[in-house]
Write a structure and sequence with these properties.
Distance between the termini: 74 Å
Oligomer: single chain
Shape: elongated
Helix content: over 70%
Strand content: under 5%
Number of strands: 0
Largest sheet: none
Mean pLDDT: 83
Number of helices: 6
Order of helices and strands: HHHHHH
Length: 186
């Protein structure tokens, strides 16, 4: 019985020590997040705007898309990018940077003009499916390019890690969309 008691005591000190470490951890992660550079900021600001465009398109698929694979893709884009927007917004707040980069609004929406969005909005069925893929492929390619720049130039580990995930997931989605488009006779 005594052995268990001793082990329990160790665990307890581990716990109280644990809460202290958490405090210092918060401090170290804050100092870590201070190690961001312009590339990290540009990546987060630009990607938020970019993801918002993709979300807007993905949300249009509901009730307009005819192809179940297009609908499924739109759902997955929404599921992946919505939390990423929240994460990147959090980084910018931690870094004391503006979360909406009006200056980097120059990051053109990769071939998505207001006219395109309006046309997409007013289309449905097979026409919507093709238009959605036609617009989303170059849009994803733009995200991959932005992410590759971040991997090359960024200094914030979390941001670089997210950039790697974006390259991986969106490259796979681009291939999927190109295949779909061929199947739809795009």
């Amino acid at each position: 019985g005594r052995g268990a008691g001793a082990a329990g005591a160790v665990v307890l000190t581990g716990c109280s020590g644990g809460s202290d470490t958490n405090d210092t951890d918060a401090g170290s992660s804050a100092s870590q997040s201070a190690e961001f550079n312009d590339a990290d900021v540009a990546f987060a600001q630009g990607m938020i705007v970019h993801h918002e465009g993709a979300l807007e398109m993905a949300q249009m698929a509901d009730g307009r898309a005819q192809n179940p694979q297009v609908l499924d893709l739109a759902d997955r884009i929404e599921a992946a990018q919505d939390p990423e927007i929240k994460t990147m917004t959090g980084w910018l707040e931690d870094w004391d940077q503006p979360t909406s980069a009006d200056e980097s609004g120059g990051m053109d929406m990769e071939g998505m003009s207001e006219e395109d969005m309006t046309a997409l909005d007013s289309s449905s069925g097979a026409e919507f499916d093709r238009m959605f893929l036609d617009m989303m492929i170059p849009h994803h390619q733009g995200a991959v390019e932005m992410a590759e720049t971040e991997i090359a130039d960024g200094s914030d580990q979390d941001a670089v890690e997210m950039a790697r995930e974006i390259v991986e997931s969106q490259t796979a989605e681009i291939q999927e969309m190109q295949t779909l488009l061929t199947e739809l006779g795009g």
